[in-house]
Every structure is written in C-alpha cells, then in structure tokens.
Amino acid sequence: RKEFVDLYVNYVLNESIRKPFEDFMQGFIRGCPAESWKIFLPAELQVLLLGHTDYDWQLLKKNVTYVYYEESHQTIKNFWTVFYKLPEEKKKKFLAFLSGSDRIAPYGLEYFVFYIEDPFCQNPDNSYPSARTCNCTLLLPR
C-alpha cells in the first residue's frame, strides 16, 4: 500500500503536470531569462513579482497629490478620517480598488504616489467614488 500511495502521489504531483509545466517554464524563460532571476533569494523574487505587504498607511497619506482639492478641504478630511477607521483588510481592498493590487510595488510605499481628484460631478450626492488604476487616481466627488 505504501508503494502504491507513493507512486500515486508522485504521479499526481509530478508526472501528470510535467508536460504543461515544461511548456510554461519554456515560455517564462523565453520572456524572463533564468540568469536574471538566479541573483534573487526566493523571498526576494516573490516580492519582486508579487509586491510586498509592509503597509505604512501614514506614508500613503504623505504621498498623495490632490487635484482640484486642497488637503484642508472637508471632503479630504472626511476621507482620511473614514480611511483610518477601516480595519486592515478594508484598507487593503481600498489599495486594490485604487491600484489594481492589494500589495505594495517592490520599490516600496515611500515611492507609491497616488492622486485624489475632484471629478466635478454635476450632482456629487448621486455620484460614487471611482478609480483609474493605470495612474492610481481616486475620483472623489465633493
């Protein structure tokens, strides 16, 4: 039985996926030569590909640029008051809403710049916040 289980596990986890994995690996190495990746430790490579999870929300506020808003505007004050009261998981969801990912880019949050812009809605009370993930802009109606 032990030999059967060992052979079955080997088949399921190794042999059955060998061909698809080799095809994936060839395509990956063609786009990202393996020599370039060998200089990284596994944890460093994970951060490079996925981003990291060291969140400093005060730094996020420090790096915002306001478009058609002043930092002293009541809408902005309300936004940050509500943001800081959110649980950690909701803050990550906001980051995903804003940038498309709930992880911080490898270069770090100190270089992450985002914008809060007034979209000049005709009736702001009937408008929802939206985001442009390509340039990390939060469109926040007054």
From TrEMBL:
Assigned keywords, A-Z: Ligase, Transferase, Ubl conjugation pathway
Keyword Electron transport found: no
GO biological process, one term: protein polyubiquitination
HECT domain residues: 1-142
EC class name: transferase
Positions annotated as active site in the UniProt record: 134 (glycyl thioester intermediate)
GO molecular function, one term: ubiquitin protein ligase activity
Known catalytic reactions: S-ubiquitinyl-[E2 ubiquitin-conjugating enzyme]-L-cysteine + [acceptor protein]-L-lysine = [E2 ubiquitin-conjugating enzyme]-L-cysteine + N(6)-ubiquitinyl-[acceptor protein]-L-lysine
InterPro entries, A to Z: E3A/B/C-like, HECT_dom, Hect_E3_ubiquitin_ligase
Pfam families assigned to the protein according to its UniProt record, in alphabetical order: HECT
UniProt-listed PROSITE patterns: HECT (PS50237)
Keyword Ligase: yes
EC number(s) stated in the UniProt entry for this protein: 2.3.2.26
PANTHER family membership: HECT-TYPE E3 UBIQUITIN TRANSFERASE, UBIQUITIN-PROTEIN LIGASE E3C
Protein name: HECT-type E3 ubiquitin transferase
